[in-house]
Specification:
Elements: H1 6-40
Amino acid sequence: MGDKSPKANKKQASQKQTKTDAVDAKKKSDTAAKQIDKTKK
């Protein structure tokens, strides 16, 4: 169940990194959209 090989650990770490990157990208796009809304008004 708990795979502790270096390869498995690296894979898990990269998956977490990808997930946080996706969240950061969404936050950035949300803030960019809000800034555009402010300039339109």
